[in-house]
Specification:
It is a single chain. The protein is mainly alpha-helical. The protein has two domains: 68 residues, no CATH class; 499 residues, Hydantoin permease (Orthogonal Bundle). The protein is built from 19 helices and four strands. The strands form two sheets. The protein has a two-stranded antiparallel ribbon.
């Protein structure tokens, strides 16, 4: 065989991707942008999106004390009338992405037949996990199991405060943090990555609708899709930042005052707004360093801190009980997964848990999906569809269950076989203190509490960073790289939105914003299942075509390089993939 020339392989396969797979269009990402003052902005999406966000924040401030009542009414409306739609939609997403991975499309490579990975597997996993649900796991991993332990979901019918209630609480918590949320992220990430890297379209949501809209994605239909995406992203992210800063405030107060006996930091909206300002400044500096210099390094630090805190509690905590909880919780989760996925509580007891928890979570994940999905898409070039789905759907879900079993299981142990202090403190002081009250029950509790607080701060920063990069893509016409000034601008804007909503209505206002923006976006994701299928099917047909085989043969002769096709490579699935030799 001829000696391989890596540069010629890349150039030739890139040309092949453009020639056979890219749509016949003269448009390019950001080709109508306005540039100046350190900005590179889409002429419609940026100003209109900023105007809508500003109008919402202004109305929230003007409503004053009435804002909380309005937010509560809006949330009740969506939970009471559209809970069934959220549950059905998310089940569709998990079926769709599993089909893509396990079927004939699994060997299609994101970025084209010879695309190379931009990040190592460890860096990739660290970044997608930090963006995906880091803050949420820190906030709910103790408080949610403790809540279900006392108020058992109607689906399970167990007696509160018993071992059966503990098993039910772990199964319900696994359900909310397992396959379903990651299926949402995976569907969005796969669709965006495919249409951007394989089709050469802008890295925005409008591109996913090319099979339905064609060139019209560059007109008002595309503008509306991206505006809905900006709105969902900014408010879904604000909800997470609100949870994070509330826990940071409590952590600093509880660890410094109650555990170390130092001067206690006040807990309330005022200190939390100040914390948002300070941490947003750190986030702005990080996002200015870019994807490689800031986000990647902080995400990797997050992963190490998480593993450190997890390992610490497994060692000093009830180790055997934690692993037993993990296994039993997985059994209860898998045993009830199908029924639980479609359970609405309409025909009996349990609607309260579905509306207050499951519908909120599904709407929250959906409102987060533009931000997380686009970020995952941005870092996933070079991976096959099957590798992508395994990495996004299964591995993070498994790690989440281990994390929840460690902290939730330790809380169950303290409640059933210990002094019950974690549960008592949770009932007295609320969700934000649950994690720190639990850590206090074990050796070096103050050190562990300080580490947990630091971890929430770094998750806050990486979430803000990732969100800024995503909104940059959306408001710059889908460009992959935008000016530093623009990245800083959106990092500051995200912090401002979170601060205003927190000031106006507390965490309830942030939860309502996530649910309200999640509903219209859920409709977009349902359509996305079809358009992504159409894109993958077209790619598969071209890869199987005689024209593609003839063009590959021409390349091997013209460029004096070797290209491996499915028939040549016994390790590949016949007809599913075409890659170059390594």
């Amino acid at each position: 065989m001829a000696e391989r020339n890596d540069d010629s392989v890349g150039d030739s396969s890139d040309g092949l991707q453009v020639e056979l797979f890219h749509p016949d269009s003269d448009r390019e990402p950001g080709d109508t942008n306005i540039q100046g003052l350190g900005f590179d902005i889409h002429p419609v999406v940026f100003p209109v999106g900023l105007l809508l966000i500003g109008a919402f924040m202004t109305a929230t401030i003007l409503l004053g004390d009435q804002a909380g009542a309005v937010f509560s009414s809006v949330r009740s409306f969506f939970e009471g009338n559209f809970g069934w739609f959220f549950l059905l939609g998310v089940n569709l997403f998990i079926i769709t992405i599993t089909y893509f991975a396990l079927g004939k499309y699994g060997q299609i490579r994101i970025g084209g037949v010879n695309a190379e990975k931009e990040f190592s597997d460890l860096s990739w996993m660290a970044m997608l996990f930090s963006a995906g649900m880091g803050i949420g796991l820190m906030f709910f991993s103790v408080s949610e199991p403790l809540y279900y332990f006392q108020t058992v979901p109607g689906f399970f019918g167990a007696e509160a405060g018993t071992g059966a209630a503990a098993s039910a609480s772990m199964a319900q918590t696994f359900f909310h943090w397992g396959f379903h949320p990651w299926a949402i992220y995976g569907l969005v990430g796969l669709g965006l990555a495919f249409f951007s890297f394989n089709r050469g379209l802008p890295l925005t949501f409008r591109s996913v609708f090319w099979p339905l809209l064609g060139e019209r994605i560059y007109g008002w239909p595309g503008h509306i899709i991206d505006l809905v995406t900006v709105f969902a992203t900014i408010f879904g992210l604000s909800a997470s930042l609100g949870f994070g800063v509330a826990q940071i405030n409590t952590g600093l107060s509880y660890v410094g005052g109650d555990m170390l006996g130092l001067a206690s930091i006040p807990v309330g909206i005022g200190p939390q707004v100040l914390l948002i300002a300070g941490i947003t400044a750190i986030a702005a500096a990080s996002v200015a360093a870019g994807l490689d210099g800031g986000v990647k390094r902080l995400s990797t630090l997050n992963l190490y801190l998480m593993i450190g805190l997890l390992g610490f509690l497994i060692i000093v905590g009830p180790t055997v009980y934690i692993f037993g909880t993990w296994v039993e919780g997985l059994g209860a989760y898998f045993g009830s997964l199908l029924s639980l996925s479609f359970f609405t509580g309409t025909l009996g007891e349990g609607a309260g848990t579905v509306n207050a928890w499951t519908v909120f979570y599904w709407a929250w994940w959906i409102s987060w999906s533009p931000f997380v999905g686009m970020f995952i898409a941005r870092i996933s070039k070079g991976r096959t569809v099957r590798e992508f789905v395994i990495g996004v759907l299964f591995l993070p879900s498994l790690f989440s269950t281990l994390w929840l079993s460690t902290f939730g299981g330790a809380a169950m142990f303290n409640s059933l076989q210990g002094n019950g202090a974690a549960l008592a403190t949770y009932n007295e002081l609320g969700q934000t203190v649950a994690m720190f009250a639990l850590l206090e029950q074990f050796p070096l509790g103050a050190v562990a509490g300080g580490l947990a607080t630091l971890l929430v701060i770094t998750f806050f920063v990486t979430s803000s960073d990732s969100g800024s990069l995503v909104i940059d893509h959306l408001t710059s016409g889908g460009k992959h790289d935008v000016p530093k000034t623009q990245r800083i601008f959106w990092a500051v804007t995200e912090g401002a939105v979170a601060a205003v909503l927190l000031y106006a209505g507390g965490l309830g206002a942030l939860q309502t914003a996530a649910i309200a923006t999640g509903f219209p976006f859920a409709v977009i994701l349902v359509l996305m299942c079809y358009t992504t299928y159409q894109g993958l099917q077209t790619e598969y047909e071209i890869l199987e075509s005689e024209k593609f085989a003839d063009r590959v043969q021409d390349m091997t002769v013209e460029d004096d390089i070797d290209m491996i096709t499915p028939d040549d490579d016994p390790a590949s699935d016949v007809g599913d993939d075409v890659t170059s030799s390594d």
